[in-house]
Amino acid sequence: MSTVFERITGNDEIFSCKEYISDSLIFNTIESARNDSIHELYSDHKNVIILRAKNGPRVWLWTSAAIKDDTSKLIDICRFLRDCNIPKAEIYLKQEVAGNFSDLYALTTLEINYVVKDEFSIAVLTYNDKDPIKDNESGIVLIDKNNSEHVKLVKDFYTSLMDEFRWKDKLDRKVKEYLELEMYGYIKDNRLIANSVIGGRTEDYQTIKSIAVLTDERRKGYGYEMCALAVNSIKQRGLTPVLYSHVGNQAAMALWKKTHFKIQNKLYLLKIENND
What we know:
The protein is an alpha+beta fold. It contains 9 helices and 12 strands.
């Protein structure tokens, strides 16, 4: 493992860097995970923060503008992540370094046969209205991870969406992960037909992790209702809702616009897979 990046804690001085503070909204996941027990933080204490999940593929990579054209430092990052050997890694990073990084990552992982399988822009959106939005709570419940009926409904729900979400090899892990978060479900005819999942929070923001609706129940207003409920739950805590969305997902982007979200910035997502 590279010694360029050392394990750090959530109070490392790099979090006081002015540039990081200005970027902290788009890297809300790093902010909300700084002191939890399911992520690890690494840094050079100056220009790079790497947040990786202990039991998952996601890596959040913050870099200062100083390394945008610093090929040697970008290669150091690539080698560090390569040596972490994360199966099917998903790397989130600044839009402006994405091109150089993905090319270098492909080069530095050749010896272990990794390849960049997909890459696309992620919109970072925040709620853009002073007031909550109207929702109808009929049929909506707070999912209880200790309620076996709720757990079964959630597992059946995500099983139905497994192919769309590309969760074939990680269904059980993702269900377990989401059940640990704050989840609301719309139950109809003994089925969970839509849900919203609320994730980590910072001093100012809280993330809407997911809004999902069963395929045969779409275009009936359930997505809007679940998003409205999540927004209102977060607003009641005095926080601003924030979410991340694939800009190419036109249906999702239309929903975010309808529910008063506005694009604040963009990230880039690289999906890395073993090429066997």
